[in-house]
Write a structure and sequence with these properties.
This protein is an alpha/beta fold. Helices cover 37% and strands 19% of the residues. A hairpin with a 3-residue loop joins strand 13 and strand 14. The radius of gyration is 34 Å and the shape is elongated.
Length: 742
C-alpha cells in the first residue's frame, strides 16, 4: 500500500513548508504525488457513485501513528477534518461530484482491538470502538436534521445554516428537553435584532438518512448462565440497510451517550443512555464472500476444481473429525452447495435448496453434523425443536418500542434467507408448530395476516433437520414412517432422508475407537503428536496424521461460496439419460405403493434434479452430466431403501441394481473399450508391416508390443459418458488383463 505523503498534509494545514534536518525550512513539492492508493480509491468511489472512502487503520498506524492515536481518542473532531479533506480532494478531481453527493464520508476499517458489548464502560465513552454481534431488529429509515435554517417570524429573515451533529437527536426523543431543532435555535435575529420567535425552515434545511439497529451478542460469546446483552447502534447516510436482521456484523463506531429523560424521571437521578454511532460495518460472511475473494483465492479454487476427484475430497472434508457416514456427508455437501432455483414465466417458482433429514440412533453425531454445517455455511441459523415455536420459526408481530406501531420480526427461517436453517430435535416439535413450516419448505415464503398486516416474507433457505426415532432407537423391522412421528406431507418435502443406525460390528467398532482415540490425541495442543515429537501411528509414519485429500476448512468455505454465487449448471437433454429417470420414477412409485415406506411423489423427480445440479456445482461445471445424475439417483435410492424394513432391503437392492452404476460396471466397459482399441491397433500394425515386408525396417520393434495413447482412450471413454479413468488405470482390472500404464 502507498503511504500518506506531503500532499495529504497540505490538505490538513496551511503551512506549506517542512523542517529539514539542518533546521532550515524548505517548501513542499505539491506536484510530486505518492498517495496513489487513496486517489485510486476515490476514483473507484466516484465511478460507483458512492460516498464512502475506506481507510485502513493498520496502514494509518504504520505511517501516521500520531494521527491514528487521535482518531481513537478524539474520533469526532478527526473524522470531521478527514471528511472535509476527502471532500475537498474529491471535488478537486471531480468538480461535478457535488451534484451527486454533498460530502465524502471517511470509514475507518481494520481496527485491531475487538471489544465485547458487555465490556463497554465509562472509559470507552467518546472513543472509537469495534464490536461484533447479531442484528436482531432494525427500524425504518427516517430523515435526520443535518443543516438547519430558521425564519424570524417578525421580519421573515432567514438565519443559517446551523450544523447539527449526528448524536444531537440520536436518543429517539428520549431526551425530554426538546428536539434538536429547538436546541440549536438562534438567540437573536440578525435582521431585526429581536429575540424571536423563530421557526424551522423545513424547505431549506438539509437532512441525512437515519436508522436505528439493535445489536445483540453472538450466542457463542455469551458466558454460561448469562443473558445476551444488546446495544443500540445508529446508522446514518449510506450505512442504512447495511445489515439485515439475523446477520453477524462487526461495527466500528463512536461509543456515545445522551441524557435519558424518562429513565431520569423514574429513577430520580440523572441517567444517560449509551449507544454506538457507527462509522464502518463489515458482515461476517464478507471475508469469504465471492465478491471479496482475491485473485489468489480464485486461482486456488479453479485449481481444486480441475481435480477429477474433487467430489470425493469435498465429502471427506465435510466434518473430518467424524468417522464414516459418507452418505450423510454427501447429503450435507449437496445442501451446502445448493441447486439452481427456477422461475417459470415469473409465475411458478421452483426452489433450488436441498432439504435433508437425519434420523437415527443416539450417539451417531447428528447434532455434530448440524453444528458443522452452521460453522461452514456463510449464513446459518440454528434452533432446536423444543425451544422453537411456530412464530419463532416463521415470523411474529409486535409493537415497535420507538414508533408504537405494529411491526414484523422474522423468525429463524426468515433470518436464514439465502442460507441454511438447522433444526435439531425435529421430532420434539409440536404438530401445530411443525405444520407452520410446510409453506416455507416448498414455496419458500411465509404468508402472514395478523394485526392488519397482510404480507409474504421470503424464506429461501435449505432446511437440515435431525430427529430421533420413537422410543430412542431405530427399529429395523419397521419402516421409516413407523419409526418417527412425522406426517407424509413433511417427509415428502425433504429431498434426502438419511437413516443412521448404531449397529454392532467388531471390525467397524475397533476402527471407530482407534479414530476417536487418535483424534483426541491430536487435539491436545501439548501432546507429543501435535508438536511432531513422535510420529502419528495413523499417519503412515509421518509426523502429522492429516489426510492430504482433506481440503482446509477456510478454503472449503470459500469454494462453497464461490460455487453458490458463480456456478449455475443447466440441464441438457444430450448430457444425461432422461428415460432412465422416467423408468426409475415408475419403479419407485410401484414399489412404494406396495411396501408402505416413504411415499414417492412428483417432488422426488425435482429432488433428483436438484441433487444432480448440486453435484455439478461441487465440480464447478456449467452443465449436468451423467455422473452427476448417477450420484443423485444413488442418494435417492439409498434414502428409499434405508427407509424400508430390513427384511426387504436386499430385494429392493436387487430390483434397483440396474439404476446404479457401480465401479465394476465402468471397469468392464472401459476394459471393452481398451480391448477394441488394441484390436484396431494390432490390425493397423499388421497392415503396416505387410506393406514393409521387404525391408529390414519392417521386422520391427513393435512386433510384441502394442501402444494406445491415454488421451485417445479418455476421449473414447467420454463418448460413453465415463469422465474419470484414473481409478481404472491404477486398478487391478487393467493389470489382470495384461495391460501396463506407461
Amino acid at each position: 500500500m502507498e503511504t500518506f505523503t506531503e500532499d495529504d498534509d497540505d490538505d490538513l494545514d496551511e503551512n506549506n513548508e517542512e523542517l529539514m534536518e539542518d533546521g532550515t525550512l524548505k517548501p513542499k513539492k505539491r506536484k510530486k504525488r505518492k498517495n496513489a492508493l487513496y486517489e485510486m480509491r476515490i476514483r473507484a468511489m466516484c465511478a460507483a457513485n458512492a460516498s464512502s472512502l475506506e481507510i485502513s487503520y493498520l496502514h494509518l498506524m504504520s505511517r501516521e501513528p500520531t494521527l491514528a492515536i487521535w482518531i481513537v481518542d478524539a474520533p469526532r473532531d478527526l473524522l470531521d477534518v478527514l471528511r472535509e479533506t476527502a471532500t475537498r480532494h474529491t471535488l478537486r478531481l471531480f468538480p461535478g461530484f457535488a451534484s451527486i453527493h454533498d460530502e465524502v464520508h471517511v470509514r475507518i476499517a481494520d481496527i485491531p482491538i475487538l471489544d465485547s458489548l458487555r465490556d463497554l464502560r465509562r472509559s470507552h465513552l467518546d472513543c472509537l470502538v469495534k464490536v461484533n454481534g447479531v442484528v436482531t431488529r432494525r427500524s425504518a429509515v427516517y430523515p435526520q436534521l443535518k443543516m438547519a435554517y430558521y425564519d424570524c417570524i417578525r421580519c421573515k429573515y432567514t438565519l443559517g445554516p446551523f450544523r447539527i451533529e449526528e448524536t444531537s437527536n440520536s436518543s429517539g426523543g428520549s431526551t425530554g428537553g426538546g428536539d434538536a431543532s429547538e436546541l440549536h435555535m438562534p438567540n437573536s435575529c440578525a435582521g431585526c435584532d429581536s429575540e424571536g420567535p423563530f421557526r424551522l425552515n423545513a424547505t431549506k434545511s438539509k437532512y441525512r438518512n437515519y436508522q436505528r439497529v439493535n445489536l445483540q451478542e453472538t450466542p457463542g460469546s455469551v458466558p454460561p448462565g448469562r443473558v445476551p446483552r444488546s446495544k443500540e447502534v445508529i446508522f446514518t447516510n449510506d450505512l442504512i440497510d447495511a445489515a439485515r436482521p439475523g446477520e453477524e456484523v462487526e461495527i466500528t463506531g463512536v461509543y456515545s451517550h445522551s441524557y435519558d429523560y424518562h429513565m431520569t424521571q423514574r429513577s430520580g437521578f440523572p441517567v444517560f443512555a449509551t449507544f454506538i454511532s457507527s462509522n464502518h460495518v463489515r458482515k461476517k460472511e464478507d471475508a469469504s464472500s465471492a465478491a471479496n475473494l482475491t485473485e489468489a483465492d480464485r486461482a486456488q479454487i479453479l485449481e481444486l476444481a480441475r481435480d477429477p476427484k474433487i467430489g470425493d475430497r469435498i465429502v471427506r472434508s465435510i466434518a473430518p473429525s467424524i468417522y464414516g457416514h459418507k452418505e450423510v456427508k454427501m447429503a450435507l455437501a449437496m445442501s451446502l452447495f445448493g441447486a439452481v432455483p427456477k422461475n417459470v414465466d415469473d409465475k411458478h417458482r421452483i426452489r433450488g435448496d436441498v432439504n435433508v433429514l437425519l434420523l437415527g440412533d443416539p450417539g451417531t453425531a447428528k447434532s455434530q453434523m448440524l453444528k458443522y454445517a452452521e460453522a461452514t455455511a456463510p449464513r446459518a441459523v440454528y434452533s432446536t425443536g423444543k425451544g422453537a415455536s411456530a412464530v419463532g420459526l416463521t415470523a411474529s408481530v409486535h409493537k415497535d418500542p420507538m414508533t408504537k406501531e405494529w411491526t414484523l420480526e422474522g423468525g429463524a427461517l426468515v433470518l436464514a434467507d439465502r442460507g441454511v436453517c438447522l433444526i435439531d430435535e425435529f421430532d420434539k416439535m409440536n404438530e401445530q408448530d411443525r405444520t407452520s413450516i410446510h409453506e416455507a419448505m416448498e414455496q419458500q415464503s411465509i404468508s402472514l395476516s395478523k394485526a392488519g398486516i397482510v404480507t409474504s416474507l421470503q424464506a429461501r433457505c435449505a432446511v437440515i433437520a435431525a430427529a430421533n426415532p420413537i422410543g430412542g432407537r431405530y427399529d429395523s423391522s419397521c419402516t421409516l414412517a413407523e419409526n418417527v412421528e412425522l406426517t407424509d406431507p413433511i417427509l415428502q418435502r425433504f429431498d434426502c432422508l438419511c437413516v443412521l443406525q448404531d449397529t454392532v460390528d467388531p471390525v467397524a467398532d475397533e476402527r471407530l475407537a482407534n479414530f476417536v482415540t487418535s483424534s483426541h490425541m491430536r487435539s491436545v495442543p501439548t501432546s507429543d503428536i501435535a508438536r511432531a515429537v513422535v510420529p502419528d501411528p495413523d499417519g503412515g509414519g509421518g509426523t502429522v496424521g492429516v489426510d492430504p485429500d482433506i481440503i482446509p476448512q477456510d478454503l472449503l468455505r470459500k469454494y462453497t461460496e464461490y460455487a453458490r454465487v458463480n456456478v449455475r449448471p443447466v440441464l441438457r437433454g444430450s448430457t444425461f439419460d432422461q428415460e432412465k429417470i422416467a423408468s426409475l420414477y415408475v419403479a419407485l412409485r410401484r414399489e412404494s405403493s406396495s411396501s408402505g415406506g416413504v411415499p414417492i411423489a412428483v417432488r422426488h423427480i425435482e429432488s433428483i434434479m436438484r441433487m444432480s445440479e448440486a453435484h455439478a456445482k461441487m465440480h464447478l461445471r456449467e452443465y449436468v452430466r451423467d455422473d452427476d445424475m448417477d450420484a443423485s439417483i444413488t442418494m435417492m435410492l439409498h434414502s428409499f431403501i434405508m427407509a424400508q424394513k430390513f427384511s426387504g432391503r436386499r430385494s429392493f437392492q436387487r430390483s434397483f441394481a440396474k439404476f446404479l452404476s457401480s465401479r465394476e460396471d465402468k471397469a468392464h466397459l472401459l476394459l471393452h473399450i481398451l480391448q477394441d482399441m488394441m484390436r484396431n491397433e494390432a490390425m493397423y500394425q499388421t497392415i503396416r508391416q505387410s506393406q514393409r515386408s521387404g525391408t529390414e525396417k519392417g521386422d520391427g520393434v513393435l512386433a510384441g508390443t502394442l501402444e494406445v495413447l491415454l488421451e485417445e482412450f479418455e476421449s473414447r471413454a467420454r463418448d460413453r459418458r465415463i469422465y474419470d479413468v484414473s481409478e481404472f488405470c491404477k486398478g487391478e482390472a487393467l493389470r489382470d488383463a495384461g495391460y501396463v500404464l506407461d
